[in-house]
Specification:
The protein has 240 residues and is of the alpha+beta class. The protein is 28% helix and 33% strand. It contains four helices and 13 strands.
Length: 240
């Protein structure tokens, strides 16, 4: 399999500035970024947003980043996006040596959905992990890795160990990590009012009330009894 040619992305150098300069560049349809790592220093640049989008959508992870006529093979390290519009607002690229393996994050796609008994029985596909970290030469980094759910029934899952790695690509993450599961369908249970429990509660309150009333009546009897004994003491005094 022939190695894909690196996509060329042309950028212009810029003076590192604050948020005001960054906003000005974005109004002009450009995205600020930095290039660092390797044998060179940190270079601040600006690139046309449309050119950047096309380069990132192209095949292959390596981009030939040309800043003012000086090209360097690089890979995207980080892309900041607008929280609402989703547009890229800043990019970080790192220089790479095409002969030295690097770690890269690769998305995982699912296949075999049509041949999954669990899904035919009403199960739900869950993907708790959608990306995987691999170690490979820059030009050998795959665009995506595939996990198959073919033959899985409800309650079964597929781990990273079942993901086929291309030649020259090494898995960095734990192979036991689950990347796809077939979950049982959710059953909606209607909430019912437990009237019996409420009635029992009301009965307990009634018994407590009755107990309190009974206590008050007995207390009254004691007071009347005490009065009678007092009369007896008075009569005893008369005898003296």
């Amino acid at each position: 399999m022939a190695k894909p040619e690196a996509t060329v992305l042309t950028a212009s150098p810029r003076d590192p500035g604050g948020s005001r300069d960054a906003r000005r560049l974005r109004r002009e349809g450009k995205v600020p970024g930095v290039l660092y790592g390797g044998d060179g220093g940190t270079v601040a640049f600006a690139v046309d947003s449309r050119d950047l989008r096309r380069a990132l959508q192209a095949s292959g992870a390596v981009i030939e980043l040309d800043v003012d006529g000086s090209g360097s093979p690089a890979v995207l390290r980080d892309a900041q996006r607008h929280p609402v519009r989703g547009e890229i607002t800043h990019v970080d690229f790192v220089r790479v040596n095409l002969n030295v393996a690097i770690e890269a994050i690769v998305p995982i796609s699912v296949e075999g959905v049509d041949d999954c008994p669990g899904l035919r029985d009403g199960g739900v596909l869950d993907q708790p992990v959608r990306e995987v970290t691999v170690l490979a030469l820059p030009n050998e980094i795959p665009e995506t890795l595939v996990v198959s759910v073919e033959g899985l029934t409800i309650g079964e899952n597929a781990s990273l160990a079942s993901v086929a790695m291309p030649a020259g690509v090494e898995l960095v993450d734990d192979p036991e990590i689950v990347v796809a599961s077939i979950l049982a369908p959710r059953v909606e249970v209607e909430e019912t009012v437990e009237e019996e429990t409420e009635l029992i509660g009301e009965g307990e309150e009634g018994e407590e009330g009755a107990g309190e009333e009974g206590g008050e009546e007995s207390g009254g009897d004691e007071e009347s009894g005490g009065g009678d004994s007092g009369d007896g003491d008075d009569s005893g005094g008369d005898s003296d």
